[in-house]
Specification:
acyltransferase activity, transferring groups other than amino-acyl groups, Acyl_CoA_acyltransferase, globular, five-stranded antiparallel sheet, 274 residues, Aminopeptidase, 10 strands, GNAT_dom, GNAT domain-containing protein, N-acetyltransferase
Length: 274
């Protein structure tokens, strides 16, 4: 392990290697749920999503300049998962290419366009369905150009994304590994509908208001918590995050298959990616 980054505690001291190693050994629990099938449908097959004033559609290479313009607004990027603007057009192009077939099976990401003008004003979705590192659940992310903040677009965007995510095809109930903090009173071997996590910098007041105000389905507020920041350029600082879990309103039953019942579900895990 020589040459790896030093791990520091919340107070800033360097942790001994064996203590740092233990931080990565919290056991996660196996429960049963039904997540969207992998790989996700190719972007060419994803239905466009319409709200009163917005059209959401997968981004393509022709969106490069508008996408770059969005991703170079410092106010927009400052509190996102990679909290800096794109370095140059090439960096945005590389990202956009990663969202095109055949590379798009682990991302479910939509450009947000004004229905009235066709202008690209944002981006939202599940950016990485393969790496469910934080809770075990996929996470919803979203951003809008700053000129369009405060006009209710976020309140249209977020429920529309949630509804479409919960309507993606799911085949069967499978074993899935979840962080103990994400399962409440449940125990290993229990079953639950799949959840979408919404976790962001606790200081983003507009996003908090939106998520707190949703009713159908109603997100379950987890907490505000402080942790070490792992994001680029912020490593080892402290950050306060706020988090919610939204349970699939369709429940688990629509996705049960014959092989999805408790009696034989242990056979299914070998086919799962995680
Ligand atoms: C978060 C974001 C998408 C919100 O979108 P938005 O379109 O500005 O939000 P809305 O206009 O729908 O407003 C939602 C609510 O927040 C309120 N609000 C808007 N801006 C606010 C602000 N700066 N402070 C406090 N409340 C605010 C609105 O009044 C509204 O509340 P109401 O329902 O009581 O009227 C947008 O601010 C953004 O893109 N931020 C940068 C990217 C980001 O941080 N994303 C979140 C992390 S994944």
């Amino acid at each position: 392990m020589t040459g790896t980054k030093q791990i520091r505690s919340a107070r800033g001291e360097v942790l001994p290697q064996e203590v740092a190693a233990k931080l990565n050994t919290i056991p996660w629990y196996n429960l049963f749920t039904s997540l969207p099938d992998r790989p996700l449908p190719p972007s060419s097959q994803r239905a466009h999503i319409k709200t009163a004033r917005l059209v959401l559609r997968p981004l393509d290479l022709s969106d490069l300049e508008a996408f770059h313009s969005l991703r170079t607004q410092p106010e927009v990027m400052a509190k996102t998962f990679r909290p800096r603007v794109d370095r140059d057009m090439d960096e945005t192009r590389t990202l956009l290419q990663s969202l095109q077939p055949p590379n798009d099976g682990n991302s479910w990401r939509f450009g947000v366009f004004l229905a009235s003008t066709g202008e690209l004003i944002g981006d939202g979705g599940v950016y990485n369905f393969d790496d469910l590192w934080r809770t075990g659940w996929p996470e919803l992310e979203f951003m809008l150009r700053k000129e369009h903040w405060g006009q209710g677009y976020g309140k249209e965007l977020i429920p529309a994304l949630m509804e479409a995510w919960f309507n993606l095809p799911r085949s069967g109930v499978r074993k899935h590994t979840l962080h103990p903090n994400a399962i409440g009173e449940l125990e290993p071997g229990d079953e639950l509908p799949d959840n979408l996590a919404i976790i962001f910098d606790a200081s983003i007041d507009a996003a908090r208001k939106i998520v707190d105000g949703l009713t159908d389905p109603k997100p379950d507020y987890i907490a505000d918590w402080e942790q070490i920041d792992w994001r680029e350029g912020k490593e080892f600082m402290e950050i306060t995050l706020a988090g919610w879990l939204v349970a699939n309103p369709h429940g688990l039953d629509p996705y049960r298959t014959e092989t999805g019942y408790l009696s034989d579900r242990t056979d299914v895990e070998d086919n799962e990616k995680e």
